Amino acid sequence: MTHVTTTTPTTVAGDGGRTAREASPGTAAGGPRRRRPGRIRRVSLPYLLLLPALLLELLVHLVPMAVGVVMSFKELTQFFIRDWGAAPWTGLDNYQVAVDFDAPVGEEMLHSFLVTVVFTVLSVALCWLIGTAAAICMQDAFRGRGLLRALFLVPYALPVYAAVITWVFMFQHDNGLVNHVLHDQLGVTDKPSFWLIGDNSFLALLTVSVWKGWPFAFLIVMAGLQNIPKELYEAAALDGAGTWQQIRRITLPSLSAVNQVLVLVLFLWTFNDFNTAFVLFGKSAPAAADLVSVHIYQESFATWNFGRGSAMSVLLLLFLLVVTGVHLAVTSRGRRTRARV
């Protein structure tokens, strides 16, 4: 008589009676676990999708940045433009000339830097103030709110050249709309003012920058307001809090994270802004509106000293990196402090 021996699959303890074969699918008896090809594809897919963007970032930003750093250590003038690799090395001479504030080049660079700092602080503050006020006013639903929101975003949606060139015509001395309103209609000024030259050029530049930048602050703050529960305002109203108290105690604290990112982005954009001043004043900006970006352009393409202009660009990059690092350190420390409390 032939005896048939049957084997019962062993179960894994504490696993609801699952068999050892079921507990380790895809493995041979006693062999190592193999990673499925589909899992490898799923893990590598995000990196493959990011690869084109990383290559474009490398070609558009990182490579020119590295070339600019190399150029800052060379005496790259108009005599070496055809073969800039043959320009002699100067070491840190270009940087020393740029930061020598007793010499004419360094003095002009310092003046341009201070003008840019004042301009950036005022522009960012006004953009944030106007954008936040408009977003708060647009928070409650009313008839025509959608149309107003669309109109508020028009300056931000317009191309820079089309927007700024319109202001150039408005700031004209003889037939500009600004002088017509201020002098002819309202009588605020004794005579028509020159807005594109002299000291008034700073006000003209600030006006255009704020007009062009505040819709972005409005858009970001308006998106942040959507995340604040309306129950907080209802509870505050029941406790007798007025509108200003609700804004100060609920709205602004709830928007702190949004405002931190918004202020940093506005600062970087405004400090680096070249298009607005260039379209408004041309290649040579007045001394009162001589921004760093325009000054570096003039140093590079007007005097044909690309080595010194590259050194100034590197110094500007280092300054913005320091400001960004300090801002991130302060904001992260503030978040940790609030988390402990």
From TrEMBL:
Q: Which residues cross the membrane?
A: 43-63, 113-138, 150-170, 202-225, 250-271, 310-330
Q: Where is the ABC transmembrane type-1 domain?
A: 113-327
Q: Where is the composition biased (Low complexity)?
A: 1-12
Residues annotated as region Disordered? 1-37
Q: Where in the cell is it found?
A: Cell membrane
- Alphabetically list the UniProt keywords: Cell membrane, Membrane, Transmembrane, Transmembrane helix, Transport
Q: Note the topology in the membrane.
A: Multi-pass membrane protein
Q: Which InterPro entries did the record assign?
A: ABC_transporter_permease, MetI-like, MetI-like_sf
What PROSITE patterns has UniProt attached to this entry? ABC_TM1 (PS50928)
Q: Please give the Pfam families that the UniProt record associates with this protein.
A: BPD_transp_1
Key word Thylakoid present in the record?
Answer: no
UniProt lists the family membership as follows: Belongs to the binding-protein-dependent transport system permease family.
Q: How is this protein named in the record?
A: Sugar ABC transporter permease
- Its source organism is Streptomyces ziwulingensis
What is this organism's lineage?
A: Bacteria, Bacillati, Actinomycetota, Actinomycetes, Kitasatosporales
